[in-house]
Amino acid sequence: MDSNPAKRRKLENAEEEVEKALALASSSGLSMREDSSGLFMTKNAAGVFVPPRVSKSKIFVLETYELAVEVKLNKTALPGADDLLHRAKECIEKIESHDSLPIAEAASKLEEKHGIRVPFPEPRPPENSNYKVSFAKPAQFNVVGSYVSKTMVESQKDYGVDMVVVMPEEILQEKDYLDLRYFYKRAYYLAVLAVSLQEELGSSAKLSYEHLNGNHLCPVLALQPYRSKTPKTTRQFKADSSKKDYRIRIIPCAPEGFFPKSKLHLGASLNRKGQDEGSKTATQPTPFYNSTLVAEGCFLSYLKLFRQIERKCQGFKDACRLGRVWLQQRGFEGHGSDGGFGHFEWALILALLIQGGGSRGTAALSPQLNSTQLFRAMIQFLSVTDLSEKACVLGAGERPDLQEAVKSGPIIYDSARQLNVAFKMSPSSAAFLHQHAKWTRSLLNEDDVDKLDATFILKADVPFQSFDLVARLKYDGALDESVTADCRGRVWEFRDKVYRILKRALADKELGARARLIHICSKERSSWPLTADSSSPPEDPIIEIRILFDPLNMARTVDRGPTAGASAEEKEECEKFRRFWGEKSELRRFERDSIREALIWTSTTPFELCEEIMRYILNLHIKIGYVYGDLTFYGNEFSALLPLKHTDTATFNAARKAFSDFEKEVRELEGLPLHVRQIAPICPELRHASVKPPSFGPSKSGPRPMECVISFEASGKWPESLAAIQRTKIAFLQMIGKLLEQDESREVKTYVGLDNAKSDEENLAFLDVVYESGASFRLRIHSDLEETLLDRQVKDKTVEQHVRTKATTLLANFRRLHTYLPLHTQSINTYVTRFPALSGTIRLLKHWFSAHKLTSHFTEEFIELVALHVFLVPYPWDAPSSAHTGFLRALLFLSRWDWRLEQLVLDTGDDVTAVDREAIDTRFHTWRTIDPRLNHCVLFVATAYDPSGTGFTRLAGQPKPSNVVATRMTALAKSACRVVKDEGLDLVVKKLFVHSNKDYDVQICLNSKALKSAQRTYATDDPEGRGGDGGGSGSGGDGGRASKFKNLDERTGQDMLPIVQHPSDVLLEQLNTTYADGGPLVFFRGEPDEDNVIAAIWNPHMCERRRTFKVNLPTSYKPVGGVMEVEVEGGVALVEGVAEVRRVVEEEEEQVDVNKEAIVSEIARIGGDLIEEILLPKGGVM
Amino acid sequence: MTTTLGEFSVLPVSIPPLPSFKHAAVHYLYVRRNAPKVPTALDSRSLFLTNVPVDSTDLHLRGLFASLVGAGRFESVSFADERAAAAAAAAREPSADSLLPASAARLLRMSRKRKHTADEEERIEEELRSRLPDTWTRRVRKSGGTAVVVLADEKSVEQVLKAIAKTHKSKKYPTWGEGVEKKVPGLGSAWIKAHNRMCYPDKDMLQASVDAFSAVFARREAEAQELAKRLRNEPDEDGFVTVTRGGGRTAPASRNEAEEARKKMIQKAEKKKEELQNFYRFQLRERKKEQQQELVKQFEEDRRKIQELKERRGRFRPEA
What we know:
The complex is a heterodimer of chains A (1182) and B (320).
Chain A: H1 5-10, H2 13-27, H3 59-71, H4 81-93, E1 98-102, H5 103-114, E2 132-135, E3 140-144, H6 146-149, E4 159-166, H7 181-201, E5 205-212, E6 215-225, H8 234-241, E7 246-253, H9 287-296, H10 299-312, H11 316-329, H12 343-355, H13 371-384, E8 392-394, E9 412-414, E10 419-420, H14 427-444, H15 451-457, H16 463-466, E11 469-474, H17 490-506, E12 515-522, E13 527-529, E14 542-549, H18 551-554, E15 558-563, H19 568-581, E16 585-589, E17 595-600, H20 606-622, E18 631-634, H21 637-641, H22 648-668, E19 676-681, E20 706-712, H23 722-742, E21 748-754, E22 765-771, E23 776-782, H24 784-795, H25 801-834, H26 838-851, H27 860-872, H28 883-896, E24 904-906, H29 914-930, E25 941-943, E26 954-955, E27 958-959, H30 963-983, E28 1002-1006, H31 1008-1014, H32 1063-1076, E29 1081-1084, E30 1093-1098, H33 1100-1103, E31 1107-1108, E32 1117-1119, H34 1135-1149, E33 1151-1154, H35 1156-1167, E34 1171-1175
Parallel strand pairs in A: 4-7, 8-9, 20-23, 24-25
Antiparallel strand pairs in A: 1-2, 3-4, 5-6, 5-13, 6-7, 9-10, 11-14, 11-18, 12-14, 15-17, 16-17, 19-20, 21-22, 22-23, 26-27, 28-30, 28-34, 29-30, 31-33, 32-33
Helix pairs in contact in A: 2-13, 3-11, 4-7, 5-7, 10-12, 11-12, 11-13, 13-14, 17-20, 24-25, 26-27, 26-28, 27-28, 28-30
Chain B: E1 4-5, E2 8-15, E3 25-33, E4 46-52, H1 58-69, E5 74-79, H2 80-95, H3 102-111, H4 120-130, E6 145-151, H5 154-170, H6 189-198, H7 203-233, H8 250-275, H9 281-313
Antiparallel strand pairs in B: 1-2, 2-3, 3-4, 4-6, 5-6
Helix pairs in contact in B: 3-7, 4-7
Region (Disordered) (chain B): 237-261
Family (chain B): Belongs to the RRP7 family.
Protein name (chain B): Ribosomal RNA-processing protein 7-domain-containing protein
């Protein structure tokens, strides 16, 4: 490290930045760990910096290397480009010079003679102006840009080959930099070129004008070659797909150094025309105009620079390709409306950092670095330089004062050429770039995350996946202001104005920034024909405003402005505040008697608040927004789908509160033989994760208890037998229940219920505690001896295999219930407070699973973990700040997760060490080796508290979900993501949640009335109440005591029993044990409350093949009638042969088929009146 | 239509349409004479049925056989799942793995003797009392299950088989569930409701069953201890005396101690080893070499992984 602080202070800006970044990285303890490898030094003798630390596994380096090779554009991808360039050059050289003519005359001459218009920039030269234009042969031709550098990549949006044509000095004058004169001449020059090129090449290419990167001052000529239309064979066609459409852009430019740079500095006011009427504006600087002029003279200089660097630095080209991919995936382009930061700017900054960048000619980056390191260094550089806040100066030389200039736009100043490279960028795009660089940097600093996908592969600019709110603003009427002197074009001016207003309104640090990011982009017309005028208005006058929330601040309904005090300063502050906010601002008294300006908003959810504020403030300042058509908001449909209300959090908190009250009461019980150590909640209602918020109070069905487990102090009194432990637990539960009911002030009812246990060794019972207030809980007891006994049984090699298998299942179940679930609940609760959007994301995701009938195959915890994953590893973005972004990213993750080959590891609680990870890896690979067909373990999800990876993806010894269902999940997620991407803003959200039932073989429609009545059970019901077999009437089960009249019904006023299990769940479970366990049907159903259709498909392994009859067939079969065809085939020549044939015949006779009708009719009998109808969408049963 | 499959006769049963599924269906039962591996006295007058419908009950089959050969021939039926449960219970009784303390169970197995005492029956009854109340009015059987039907006499078996053959000729299949509607607890919502109701048994009844269980358990434990004591003193038939521990309790405790002692020993050994590391120069040299090799290995590994990835995903291609 540089030891001399005085020296360091003098360092140039950029170096300071890199230095800072380095310090930052090393202070976080991440850097310099890899030094022994010799690959990654931090600073060598020459004082050259390299980017800090490469991740532990160097796999990223190799991956990027592969990527750079893969994306390289094939040499033959742009067929005929060279040829076309040569022809264009020859053609231009042949044009005759002519002497100077008055500009208006020359232009009209062109139009009359050739029908080609001169693309003058706005404002057009006046008719009577005395400017003279002439034409002479170009001083120089040159092909520039990524075509010559060969840094184009495969997946580019479009391919442009740039040829600059340097206008000769004799047709220009030094004074031309003033008042657009140079640009008029340039436009005329271009038009002359267009005339002759149209004549020569018009047959082989389409010619049109366009603006260079959207800059209205610089029209250029684009030649798009026609594709040959001769019919092709398929083989040719295949080869053709690798060939790209491209266009050649002919760019006239000024000779290098023609204009005096000292006159073109950013503060100069060079376009004074039209300003004279206004008195004050006369000296307003025109930075954009000036920078464009400087840039006009720099093409060749930059070309030289790139050549130099390419020779010097091996990795430069690849780093440029990587940069291009990175920018492209985030939607950045050189075009002014796509951010104004494209491949050229990337390469330029990188080149400047390699060449100089530092003070006194020292370089900021060593040319010895490889492409990955250069890429990292660039990301580092961009992430520490907030261009919209502070000007960044690269290279030695004169250093102008840029403090003032930076207020009008971001600045990256190349001091050697005195050019602001970032002149096309808007403040909003600079902030956006900064943000993306920061995200990528933190990704690159992560250790155990797949970096390649998030950095380069994923498309990170899908609006709904990236932003919390997107709005479209129609600006039609708002643009009637006159052209400003700076010539940035009306749209850009307007865009920046909207940005400034919204930034002040939403990202004001004094108020507490509501938005983390405001990104505004505009779409503009790209090209227009030679015969048309450039000034016609754009067809689709829309700018898109995209906002990323700060979820906590955005939910604020009262903004506190400055205090209204007596001092002049305070008064001024208040005045400013009022001026900005208009009449919305009012004086309010807050606590501690402070009186402040305040803003009161009426909406409740973050989204609606943001919408309200935007509509108000845009209406106030630019008279847009309250008219509905002008401003359209997108992204709120998601919360409408599932009633995600702002009061839900309160309901969940109330449930938590009720739980802690309950816990306290149990702890305070006197007379329990053991002390209570812990009562832990284990259900989604108590971790903000259930689709429906928990409900209290009377409802039409019985209370639904929230589950928890209780554990006592360690004791030696537990009997040493599993069955005895389970009975002891029952006794314990009875005791707790009795004690709770004893105190009548509690108003509580308790019921001991029996679990549907298959053996005596499982947990047998639970205690339901129902409070009069509405809350109800289900308690199960934890006994540590149980685990020890099971563990011993699992490890005991002397007992039989089936006992051990059973013990393994029981142990897994025990651990899930008593170890993983309490910890899971705890950790989800922690993260729900840390990420306000997590709860909504989980609920939306569960709703999606339910809508697609997958719920019955997944544990709730698994879905929660998937949602949590996109918060813990959010790259390429930041953690989602609204439910829908979280939900869509979770879908994206599901669609890309190759669970066959990858495990999911969640670092819950930041304590999964490398050793742990390795252990988890080993476990996963062991699973895959011993079970390659995925019959036992399909999804593998490990967390800090569950390193086994199967705690929530295996239940009762079965994978949950099975391979088939998991594949279905991935397919559904994939198609959902495709829809999201393809439809962009026009996405109809409901579409994601619509499920087609056509694919199923059997649909069992449940009778919702019968379901509802089955949810009500009373203690006085006669359980043996006899109904008819199967098809009894709906009220058959009520035992005849239910009267038609409510007041005569003796159960009125009686308490309902809690629901042990939802009737639909019971039915599904019974059907599953009867048919699904490797049997003929696979059942699908969503949330029991919402989904009244159990759908099923026939298991193809079983139903598409005939079987030979044997005694223990897995399901109902019918004999295949009359199959005797094979009988004679073998012939009867030999005695043995006859025997052979007879055997064949016999086997044929014993073939059986699955008896589908009988099975469906069995289901109908089991369901009885609960089933309304069984549909067979695919026609008949077979 | 096939009338026999191997040694089984096919018994088609017609199933009437239901309001929710308005198709009539035919279910096929497969029937043969019962011939289990371990013969019993009842074999000659019993039939073995496979592929019984999932909602079969005693009454269903009784009705079915009545429609085949008339009433009065059917004696009883035992379903496979029930038999399995009974067998498990019976098997559990002598070894009593779950009902006994682990050590006692081991001892019992070792003794290989079982007293056939007079109070055997009383015991069984007690055990029945200690069972938890059932939560279902009626169980649904696994699809494709089997059952054994015992008929009145050997002649009935013949008659049944003949009647089955006849149904094929006359095409008049017996109807499933005829005449049982009111006699068996129904399925459907009533059944599920009853289940949800029965999951909450009467508290006193539950307490009684738990008490009964603890009584059985306590007695068993005492018996086991006694047995252990006796075995400690009595030589077995080969003249050996079995060495046993005093009670069930001591085993896990001492196991823990042993575990701890082992840990301590390992710790000590590790500490000693550590002290001698990096002591000699050759150790340092070797360590460096190892590290280098490790790096090379890691690199190769990564390269391989990339190759794999490439093969798997096709290409490294940014999404468009």
